[in-house]
Design brief:
- It is built from seven helices and no strands.
- The protein has 197 residues and is an all-alpha fold.
- It has one domain: Four Helix Bundle (Hemerythrin (Met), subunit A) (Up-down Bundle).
- The longest helix is centred in the middle third of the chain and has 38 residues.
């Protein structure tokens, strides 16, 4: 299966608008989160190159490395989600057990939500370092990451409902979903920009 990253942005958008089952919401969330992290990387680089930068350069380097690592992970997860969903559909078509494939359709979007939530943490740590000139971009980064968490959790929730009610994994997933959802809603993404204006 071809990587979604080998296509143009326009062809990815057009592929999303077809009846093809995947890529869909989780891949869109992962891609959006990489855009949010790209904006975070941009504002950190701009801020640290300013002559009047008074922040900790070591912290900026750490945040940049972490953001790049998360972006790479989310890029892989966008492709993994497509593969996981196709595997699940294949199991249904062949009428073979779907347990492992169903778990993958839960695990991958959960990883997307975790990574996007970690990106939100990086945005929060960057707030005091970013100049007001690029604060709106930091707010946009935070908004995209928060939306990616919410979008990925929609898929996690739907797929987890396919598990038996007494499955301990379903309870673990539900608890983590609640934690991640509250993390993404804890503070309005617009607040990130407002604090710097």
């Amino acid at each position: 299966m071809d990587s979604i990253w080998s296509a143009t942005l326009a062809s990815f958008r057009d592929r999303m608008a077809t009846v093809e089952p995947a890529p869909a919401g989780v891949s869109a969330a992962a891609v959006s989160a990489t855009f949010g992290l790209g904006l975070l990387i941009k504002v950190l680089q701009i801020a640290s190159k300013r002559k009047d930068f008074a922040g900790e350069r070591d912290l900026v380097r750490t945040l940049l490395n972490d953001a790049r690592g998360l972006s790479e992970a989310l890029s892989r997860l966008a492709d993994e989600d497509v593969a996981a969903f196709h595997e699940y559909l294949d199991c249904l078509r062949r009428k073979v057990p779907t347990d492992a494939a169903l778990r993958q359709t839960i695990d991958v979007p959960l990883k997307v939500a975790r990574a996007a939530a970690s990106g939100l943490d990086l945005c929060a740590k960057a707030t005091g370092l970013v100049h007001a000139f690029v604060a709106s971009d930091l707010g946009a980064a935070s908004t995209l990451l928060a939306a990616a968490v919410s979008a990925a959790l929609l898929s996690v929730n739907f797929n987890a409902q396919q598990l038996p009610e007494d499955d301990p994994y379903r309870n673990e997933v539900t608890a983590e979903m609640l934690r991640l959802a509250s993390k993404s809603e804890r503070r309005s993404p617009a607040d990130v920009a407002d604090e710097r204006l």
